[in-house]
């Protein structure tokens, strides 16, 4: 085996850190500076018209709460391996978010969190992160389906026959999955996965679900209040049905964190276009949501990435 000296290893780690942080800032700048669909003049006119220190503070508070609930979720789940402080949980969540910025569906986030623990705990950490993200996805799907059904009932986006077919496909998929749960692929099976999930204390699962619901309510209503700030006057249920539908459909598509706003923006343009909302408003709000909930945490996470120290085995 080729051995790497301590100084060479330190240099390699530094290069990786700089690549992650440099790449993050490059993609953020590129998306904000070169997006020709963002009409900054219209935004400035509307901002000057409706600017409110209280309103801006409230929207920023929702961004803080959004990430705070995610940090609490991680601190709650990771106690299965070891108890960590709120500060450590913050460091791990934000650094992992930064590391996962360029990977499909934030896969790099799993490796990012695992680096803060001993190698022997890697599989457990990846599994816990799967549970952490999984409950958020389950909520997005469940609430999104109800939102989509409500939206469809009022605006007939898809026919009743198509809805029935989709539900039929879902029922078949779940039936097949649970009927073959004992079949193992490379030592893994649905039955083993369910068993591992059940090994985690119920109190931890209950708190995880509660925090996930709080987080969903925060970021979905942040979207809602931004539409109000942009003078979009629509009934609450209609607006929330469109928002939950957008999150459901956008989260079903494979994407990268740095393209998250583009994917959600494209889906949102379709749904809010049906409601008669101007396209530039939809794109701007999607971009603002991305900036507030991804870019700002990544900027903070970059500090933790640069100050990250690899664990040395004794």
List keywords for this structure.
single chain, 314 residues, globular, 75% helix, mainly alpha, 12 helices
Report on the architecture of this protein.
By secondary structure, the protein is mainly α. Helix content is 75%, strand content 0%. Helix 5 (108-114) packs antiparallel against helix 6 (122-155). The longest helix has 34 residues, at 122-155.
Per-chain topology:
Blueprint: H1 6-33, H2 40-50, H3 53-78, H4 86-99, H5 108-114, H6 122-155, H7 160-179, H8 190-199, H9 202-229, H10 236-251, H11 260-274, H12 279-306
Helix pairs in contact: 1-12, 3-4, 3-6, 3-9, 4-5, 4-12, 5-6, 6-9, 6-10, 9-10, 9-12, 10-11, 11-12
Largest sheet: none
Distance between the termini: 19 Å
Secondary structural class: mainly alpha
- Please work out how many helical segments DSSP would assign: 12
Q: Write down the domain tally.
A: 1
Number of strands: 0
Mean pLDDT: 78
Helical content, roughly?
Answer: over 70%
Overall outline: globular
| Strand residue content | under 5%
Weakly predicted, low-confidence segments: none
Topology pattern, helix = H, strand = E: HHHHHHHHHHHH
**Radius of gyration from the alpha-carbon trace, in angstroms:** 21 Å
């Amino acid at each position: 085996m080729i051995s790497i000296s301590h100084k060479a290893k330190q240099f390699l780690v530094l290069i990786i850190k700089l690549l992650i942080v440099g790449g993050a800032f490059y993609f953020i700048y590129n998306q904000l500076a070169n997006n020709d669909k963002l009409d900054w003049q219209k935004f400035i006119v509307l901002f000057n018209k409706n600017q409110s220190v209280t309103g801006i503070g409230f929207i920023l508070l929702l961004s803080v709460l959004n990430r705070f609930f995610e940090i609490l979720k991680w601190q709650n789940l990771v106690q299965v391996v070891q108890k960590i402080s709120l500060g450590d949980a913050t460091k791990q969540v934000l650094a992992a978010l930064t590391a996962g910025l360029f990977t499909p569906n934030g896969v790099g986030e799993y490796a990012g969190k695992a680096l803060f623990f001993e190698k022997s705990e890697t599989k457990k950490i990846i599994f816990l992160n799967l549970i952490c993200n999984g409950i958020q996805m389950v909520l997005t799907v469940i609430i999104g389906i109800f939102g989509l059904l409500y939206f469809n009932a009022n605006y007939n986006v898809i026919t009743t026959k198509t809805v029935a077919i989709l539900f039929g496909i879902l029922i078949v998929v779940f039936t097949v999955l649970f009927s073959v749960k004992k079949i193992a692929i490379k030592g893994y099976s649905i039955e083993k996965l369910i068993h591992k999930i059940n090994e985690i204390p119920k109190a931890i699962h209950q708190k995880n679900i509660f925090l996930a619901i709080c987080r969903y309510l925060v970021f979905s209503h942040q979207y809602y209040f931004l539409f109000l700030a942009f003078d979009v006057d629509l009934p609450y249920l209609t607006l929330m049905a469109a928002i939950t539908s957008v999150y459901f459909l956008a989260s079903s598509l494979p994407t990268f964190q740095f393209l998250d706003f583009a994917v959600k923006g494209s889906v949102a343009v379709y749904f809010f276009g049906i409601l008669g909302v101007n396209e530039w408003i939809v794109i701007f709000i999607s971009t603002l949501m991305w900036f507030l909930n991804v870019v700002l945490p990544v900027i903070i996470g970059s500090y933790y990435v640069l100050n990250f120290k690899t664990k040395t085995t004794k």
